[in-house]
What we know:
Layout: H1 2-11, H2 14-21, H3 25-32, H4 35-60, H5 66-78, H6 81-92, H7 97-117, H8 121-139, H9 148-156
Helix pairs in contact: 1-6, 4-5, 4-7, 7-8
Amino acid sequence: MIEFALGGLHGTSTEDIARRAGISQPYLFRLFGTKKELFLETVRRGFRHVLQLFQEAAAANREGDVMRSMGHAYGDHRRDRSRLMFQMQAYAACEDSEVRKVVREEYAAIYKFVESVAPSKDAANEFFKTGMLINVAAAMDLGALDEPWAHDFLVGCGELQ
C-alpha cells in the first residue's frame, strides 16, 4: 500500500513493492500474478478497512451521534498519510475499467452501510460530501498552510472550529 500510495498503479515498480515487503519479486508474482492484481487486492483491503472502521464506530457510537462517531473514526484513519494517499491513487486509477469496477464495488459497500445507519439519505450524502472535501484538504496538507483561504476551507468543511 505504501508503495502504491507513492507512485500509483503505473508509477510503482514491483521491485520496490517486493523490497518493502521483504520478499522476492518472483514470489510477489507467484502470489498475485500481475501488478494490477496486487493493486486491486490492495484497493479491496483499503476500502474494506474503512468499512470496518465505520461499522465498529457505528456499533460503539461513543459520540451519541452515529455520523459523528464514524467521522471521528475516519479522521483517525485519514491521519495515516499513506492510507489517505493510497485511497486517492485508487480513485486516480479509475481510468482503468478493472480498477474502476473494484473501486465502485468497494465504495458501494461503504455507502450502503453508511446509508443504513444514517438518519436520512441526505445525512449520508452530506457525510460523503464532507468526507471527500476533508480528504482533498488532507492530501494537500492544508492544515500546515498559513493562508487565509486554507483556513477558510478547513473551517467550511468542519476540520477547524
